[in-house]
């Protein structure tokens, strides 16, 4: 109660002294209120930039503090707190609580500024500092959910950028990106076939081969820009990126040749 009173009166140095004493107490420190109150004091003081240094190491506790701060109507502080947890996680490549943090961050960012373009720009800024390519999936999820139809095209572009990274040590991740692209563009037979072949080359499983066979037995379709989910520019930038993952260019082969080469790669499984 005393800490709340001092904060309400904006007697921040006194409040911080009291709160830090409580945090240093082995029993009282278990109450997350005092950690939340410390962030509030830092936000209200000239020492605001210390937020990143004072942040708790446990993201689960951090998420609870962020949500409690938001419930009190302090959206700007909650957003800054969220970023103070999220940014180090992205820089360290740590996936612990990353889905929850990105989801909460997206809601707070849009509440703070409803502009979808600003939201996308901030997503790109955070993606640039990320060291683990797997964070593209939670970011694509929030972009697709929050931005609407344009979000799908942005997600396809993010996948294209990710495929240009060196993923030789992580074939599973590369396969997941191809699957994501196929999910985003379910009506583009040419891209579906290339993705299916690329996944097969990475996984070499009967299941992935059956997908290739099914797609190549479908009747050929002419690409129609009017019915496409993405702009023509994005699609034609994506095609050469996708083809880099192929062992051969299927454009010049009929299905019989593709089947023979795939079966040879399957080996005993064939």
TrEMBL record:
Q: Where is the Zinc finger protein Rlf/292/654 TPR repeats domain?
A: 57-269
- Protein's UniProt keywords contain GTP-binding: no
Molecular functions (GO terms)? DNA binding; DNA-binding transcription factor activity, RNA polymerase II-specific; zinc ion binding
For this UniProt record, the keywords arranged alphabetically read as follows:
DNA-binding, Metal-binding, Nucleus, Phosphoprotein, Repeat, Transcription, Transcription regulation, Zinc, Zinc-finger
Q: Which Pfam families match?
A: TPR_Rlf
Q: Where in the cell is it found?
A: Nucleus
Recorded source organism is: Cuculus canorus
Q: Which GO terms describe its cellular component?
A: nucleus
Q: Does the keyword Metal-binding apply?
A: yes
* Family, similarity comment: Belongs to the krueppel C2H2-type zinc-finger protein family.
Q: What is this protein called?
A: Zinc finger protein 292
* Highest taxon in the source lineage: Eukaryota
